Amino acid sequence: MSTFDSFRIAGSGLYANRKWMDAVSDNITNINTATSTDQSAFQERMIVVEAADYGSGQGGVRVAGAEFGSAEGRLVHEPDNPLADADGYVRYPDIDLGDQMTQLIMAQRSYQANLASIERATDAYQAALQLGKG
User: Fold this and answer.
1) Residue 2's pLDDT band (boundaries 50, 70, 90)?
2) Which residue ranges make up each domain of the chain?
3) Which of 107, 93, 81 is nearest to 25 (CA)?
4) Does the pLDDT of residue 3 top 80, yes or no?
């Protein structure tokens, strides 16, 4: 493991957590997006993260892709909605706000932990540089 691997490993975590927070933000933003019943609902996006170079000892993570929730959504009776069908129904995404808020808190805390690792490594490297000046 090289001297600056801690920066690379924590940096990969920061990137993955940012993607996670972006996906959750999109999900929350579109939680009340109505569509007509002949269209698909907004699909919840979930980020898939995996170990980078697993088994190599290099550490870190990478974003492997995304998984999407159901396009079927849920039907809600809103006859006054301009998108309503003849029976008065519109389609909304099937996204749970409580779950999304929990995901957001976990992503934020993980981001903060990775950032703290970078700050501690920076402090340690700066202290080591000061030893030579003494």
Assistant:
1) low
2) 5-128
3) 107
4) no
b/e per residue 54-82 (b: at least 16 CB within 10 A): eeeeebbbebeeeeebeeebeeeeeeeee
User: Which pLDDT value is given to residue 57?
Assistant: 63
Residue 76: beta bridge partners? 90
- Output the pTM of the full model: 0.85
pLDDT of residue 127: 87
Q: Three-state SS across the chain?
A: CCCCHHHHHHHHHHHHHHHHHHHHHHHHHCCCCCECCCCCCCCCEEEEEEECCCCCCCCCEEEEEEEECCCCCEEEECCCCCCCCCCCEEEECCCCHHHHHHHHHHHHHHHHHHHHHHHHHHHHHHHHHHHCCC
For 28, the token pair is 């929350």
Structure tokens at 67: 């998984």
Token pair 């008065």: residue: 88
